[in-house]
């Protein structure tokens, strides 16, 4: 930002620029937008940020974000607590819930194993998952990590830990999207579609 801008505006822009996917131009637009807010709206915005940090924590069961002891999904007796879907992030839960089809519960890893990025199994919520399985309530664990090198490695690592515990471990099927055309699919997607083919 140019030196002609007020220092508080420069500092606010720098804070916005720290957010993922926000470059300096977008950060500057956001800072100016905040400047145009009424004092009441600016205070509400600031309070919302502080409120998240003070009152949101990890669910004691699934490691999703919640403001209660248990998140609403873990606290729902209508959910099938015998099926645990393991995901990388809380955003993945939102995506799966949009389908309206999954009736089990979740476990959030908060990342994927990635030695290149310095992320080891100890940095993830794997110990908490093993504790849940050892409590004897789960019949199946669905590995719903992304179909990337890190996602596959994480799914494989966790499945190796879970299989001796007598729980069924499955992996989401990956392949061609509905309405997709073969000629536009990349090699990995086509490979996964062939590998995960099912009988009709």
Q: Biggest β-sheet: count, sense, barrel?
A: 4 strands, parallel
Question: What would you call the quaternary organization?
Answer: single chain
Average pLDDT rating: 91
Report the principal-axis shape. Answer: globular
Q: How many strands appear in the DSSP assignment?
A: 6
CATH topology descriptor of the domain at 80-171? Dna Topoisomerase Vi A Subunit, Chain: A, domain 2
Helical run tally:
7
CATH class descriptor name of the domain at 80-171: Alpha Beta
Q: Strand content of the residues, in percent?
A: 5-15%
- Could you estimate the helical fraction of the residues in percent? 40-55%
Order of helices and strands: HHHEEEHEHEHEH
* End-to-end CA span: 60 Å
Question: Per CATH, which architecture of the domain at 80-171?
Answer: 3-Layer(aba) Sandwich
Query: How is the largest sheet built, in terms of strand order?
Result: 4-3-5-6
Structural class: alpha/beta
Unreliable segments (pLDDT under 50, ≥5 consecutive)? none
The radius of gyration computed from the alpha-carbon positions, rounded to a whole number of angstroms, is 21 Å
Zinc finger (C4-type): 59-74
Family: Belongs to the RecR family.
GO molecular function, one term: DNA binding
Function: May play a role in DNA repair. It seems to be involved in an RecBC-independent recombinational process of DNA repair. It may act with RecF and RecO.
């Amino acid at each position: 930002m140019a030196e002609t801008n007020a220092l508080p505006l420069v500092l606010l822009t720098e804070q916005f620029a720290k957010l993922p996917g926000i470059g300096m131009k977008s950060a500057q637009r956001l800072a100016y937008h905040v400047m145009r807010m009424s004092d009441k709206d600016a205070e509400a915005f600031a309070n919302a940020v502080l409120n998240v940090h003070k009152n949101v924590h990890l669910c004691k069961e699934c490691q999703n974000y919640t403001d209660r002891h248990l998140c609403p999904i873990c606290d729902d007796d209508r959910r099938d607590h015998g099926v645990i879907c393991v995901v990388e992030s809380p955003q993945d839960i939102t995506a799966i819930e949009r389908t309206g089809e999954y009736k089990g519960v979740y476990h959030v890893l908060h990342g994927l194993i990635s030695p290149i990025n310095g992320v080891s199994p100890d940095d993830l919520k794997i110990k908490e998952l093993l504790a849940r399985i050892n409590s004897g309530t789960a019949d199946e664990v669905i590995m719903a990590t992304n179909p990337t090198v890190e996602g596959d490695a994480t799914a494989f690592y966790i499945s190796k830990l879970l299989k001796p515990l007598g729980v069924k471990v499955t992996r989401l099927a990956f392949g061609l999207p509905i309405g997709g055309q073969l000629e536009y699919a990349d090699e990995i997607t086509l490979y996964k579609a062939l590998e995960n083919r099912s009988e009709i």
